[in-house]
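Try it yourself: sequence plus pyridoxal-5'-phosphate, in.
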Amino acid sequence: MTATVQSAAATAGHPGASGVDHGPLDTAALRAQFPILSQSVHGKPLVYLDNAATTQKPLAVLDAVDGYYRRDNANVHRGVHTLSERATAAFEGARSEVARFVGARDSSEIVFTRGATEALNLVAMSFGAMVLREGDEVLLTEMEHHSNIVPWQMACARSGAKLRVAPIDDRGELDLDAFEKLLGPRTRIVAVTHVSNALGTVNPVARIVALAHAAGAKVVIDGAQALPHAAVDVAALDCDFYAFSGHKVYAPMGVGALYAKRELLDAMPPWQGGGDMILSVTFEKTLYNVAPYKFEAGTPDVGGAVGLGAALRWLSEIGIERVAAYERELLDYAEKALLDVPGLGLVGTAADKAGVHSFMLDGIHPHDVGTILDHHGVAIRTGHHCAQPVMQHFGIAATARASFAVYNNRDDIDRLVAGLLAVQEVFA
Ligand SMILES: Cc1ncc(COP(=O)(O)O)c(C=O)c1O
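Structure, out:
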């Protein structure tokens, strides 16, 4: 299927953030760039709707990683030979690509990590240790992924700080009034997801940053589910930290990044020791390297970073605004189609959603839904989605979740719906 959706910017004749103006989005051509999608599962053409868990990788990424290992592989930063210089250039080039994509002022504000989880742990361990004292408060929301809960619980246990949680309502939207009331003189850190992986809710992060800063708190944004779906500009948002995973944005697994304001990185202590994060070591004293290197102990995943740079370049060439507009239309189509399935209830009906529809089928356990759909070639995720407090809010143990990427189309959604009707027949 060829989509002809254009962003408002493109329709108005303006180039997107990438500076490139392309015309209509050709999703059939886009899909052809993903070799994994052309296979059959249980004899049916694969429909992959588990993109919030991980996205598939385009040829541009596969080729970049393959080319790196075929031509340039060497350890970075310490070598004088040609391959090491090439590997270092590729690694630092990827850092610049990340900085450009998220709107950082400088590539030194980008720390490579294993993913969003490690980025959030870095902030909790390093920044948390620096600022949190007994009686201080860390404010989260009820819709956080475990990766943005557990590191803060650990930081609170170490420091004697308290965790506060801003509630969500029954549509899955943050209660902003309650959030504002929970902000106080002891709030040091606000940690909030940009987009909920369990509900699809898009949080008003610019407003959250403004409120938190007015209260004197620093803001950590978990961008794992936002970066694949919308333009992010950390400088305009004025957030203090922004964490994301490469594998959810068409890049390999095992690599991600943390954006942090340079002055914060300069002030923060390292959180892991080892090679590359030092300037000099004696048994008496170690002098640490400058940011971002002081947060990157040990040999990094250079191939992964190269793949991440390639993925973000690939997305920029498509135009992230066009991706956002196309996915918005797809999400609306999916919502209407799902609501036509008798006995289906959406979990998470926020006015602003991205990438995800979570749902329940009356009388059928989500795991059964997912297992039977798999036999129809349709891959979705079922479970608590590492967001058990969200499940507790809705009084359920699990949902079925269909999540979308730029290579999905209306046919995929029609196949999902046909699969759901088949599930109901099995249980009829
Ligand atoms: C909102 C959110 N935050 C954090 C994470 C953790 O990402 P990773 O496992 O790639 O570190 C996920 C993964 O599903 C997520 O959806």
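One thing you can check immediately is this: The longest helix spans residues 82-102.
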